[in-house]
Design goal:
202 residues, alpha/beta, Rossmann fold, 6 strands, 49% helix, globular
Length: 202
């Protein structure tokens, strides 16, 4: 007797894959305003130099960025800014071909999720509008305010596969379809039976 086909798990990276470019730094500029954003970015000049010289990693620089901008920020305020950012920038940020790709997976009845290094709190409105699940970098919130720290590690590279396994269990039980566009997606694509590299870029 032939075995039943495996259920399909469709996993989409967000930044650069479904979008034209990174979303997190533009979100920070939108949320804080140009003047405050510029002032805060000046404060990250030395860490940026340290990253360029190889003294700190990309993940370490991102942790410093998050701590610098978001320590002490109200979760309610951030949620409101994230929703407004999604509402106002949706059409300029999202690739139409990417939206069609997500819609096709949903229509086919597949399990569909975003898996992104961007903060979960920022991407929740996007995942909700797409009507799919979300796995992303988690920010620590205590008593309604962000501490500037992450819960766990940045959701990129091997962490993407690990986070998927936490949510979905053994990935071998699925036929995994994955879309990505950067070095941070390579482990995810390597785990997939159907990997798609920069699929929506054209």
């Amino acid at each position: 007797m032939a075995s039943s086909p495996k259920p399909v798990l469709a996993v989409f990276d967000f930044d650069g894959t479904l979008t034209y470019h990174d979303s997190f730094v533009p979100f920070l500029k939108y949320a804080f305003g140009t003047t405050a954003f510029t002032r805060k970015m000046i404060g990250l000049f030395l860490p940026s130099l340290a990253h360029l010289s190889g003294r700190i990693s990309r993940d370490q620089l991102k942790e410093k960025l998050i701590a610098h901008f978001l320590t002490g920020v109200s979760e309610v305020w951030l949620n409101k800014k994230a929703q407004a950012f999604c509402d106002q920038r949706w059409e300029k940020l999202l690739r139409p071909s990417g939206l069609k790709g997500v819609a096709a997976e949903i229509t086919a009845g597949h399990e569909v999720t975003l898996c992104s290094a961007s903060p979960e709190l920022v991407l929740r409105p996007f995942a909700a509008k797409l009507n799919i699940k979300l796995i992303a970098t988690q920010l620590e919130v205590i008593n309604g305010y962000l501490t500037g720290a992450l819960i766990g590690i940045n959701c990129r590279c091997a962490s993407k596969v690990q986070r998927l396994q936490v949510v979905y269990g053994d990935l071998d039980q699925y036929h995994l379809r994955a879309w990505g566009d950067s070095a941070g997606d390579k482990q995810l694509l390597a785990a997939a039976q159907e990997p798609h590299w920069c699929y929506f870029h054209n």
